[in-house]
Write a structure and sequence with these properties.
Strand content: 15-25%
Radius of gyration: 18 Å
CATH superfamily of the largest domain: Jelly Rolls
Shape: elongated
Number of strands: 10
Number of domains: 2
Distance between the termini: 24 Å
CATH topology of the largest domain: Jelly Rolls
Number of helices: 6
Strand order of the largest sheet: 1-2-3-10-5-8
Order of helices and strands: HHHHHHEEEEEEEEEE
CATH class of the largest domain: Mainly Beta
CATH architecture of the largest domain: Sandwich
Length: 228
């Protein structure tokens, strides 16, 4: 819990804002989860530009300290350029005074998944569960603070929480196909572009209702569900 008597850092303020907007008071047993639709009126470039302007930083300053060409920053902010590597995103986040997980969370909810921007083929490692019909692909090296990757679930297959336990925050963004989340006797159908955030303290399971098609979802957990 943040001590409100103390001045919050920029990162704490950003994370507090994100949790208020995305987690929507989701706690174990609250039943407060709801499917969030992508905000197509906002782009990834808008997120970067808004954060930069909020901090009074020019494109030249951001480019110089992130070691990225200013033209690239301008094209990203205008929506003409939508490919940035994770190292570049990490550097930009540092210049903006936030950490990578905060920037990822903000860009994911803009409606443009960062997994489509130069990272879709860059897999750090794979956790394969062939008997259960799914695998997890990490898009970043192992980090204690959070996990960022994809889960691929074969048709008509289920992943129970006992197979993928995580007692803290879980964020799912449906990239391809459909996926059903079952939690506390409630069912949430996610279609492409939908995303949902919830606490993993209660039992849950993912299910791919497609008869033949593979389902792919972005998977982010806070902290990482992987032991380090």
């Amino acid at each position: 819990m943040i001590d409100m008597k103390k001045e919050m850092t920029v990162e704490q303020k950003e994370m507090s804002k994100n949790q208020n907007n995305l987690m929507n008071s989701v706690h174990a047993g609250s039943g407060a989860e709801h499917i969030l639709k992508s905000e197509h009126n906002r782009s990834f470039g808008d997120v970067i530009k808004n954060l930069r302007k909020e901090r009074g930083i020019s494109q030249e300053y951001l480019a110089k300290h992130a070691h990225i060409d200013r033209t690239t920053i301008a094209r990203v902010e205008s929506g003409k350029f939508k490919t940035l590597s994770m190292p570049n995103l990490d550097t930009i986040a540092g210049v903006l005074g936030i950490d990578l997980k905060t920037l990822i969370l903000k860009t994911e909810t803009s409606g443009e998944s960062v997994s489509y921007r130069g990272q879709i083929d860059k897999i750090e490692f794979i956790l394969d569960f062939p008997e259960s019909g799914f695998r997890i692909l990490s898009l970043l090296p192992k980090k204690k603070e959070f996990f960022f990757g994809k889960i691929e679930l074969n048709a008509q297959k289920t992943v129970p929480s006992s197979t993928l336990p995580h007692p803290d925050q879980i964020y799912i963004h449906c990239l391809e196909g459909k996926m059903t989340l079952l939690r506390e006797s409630r069912e949430f159908l996610l279609k492409q572009g939908d995303h949902i955030a919830y606490s993993g303290l209660s039992e849950y399971e993912f299910y791919n209702p497609e008869p033949l098609k593979l389902n792919t979802c972005l998977l982010i957990t806070y902290p990482s569900f992987l032991p380090l």
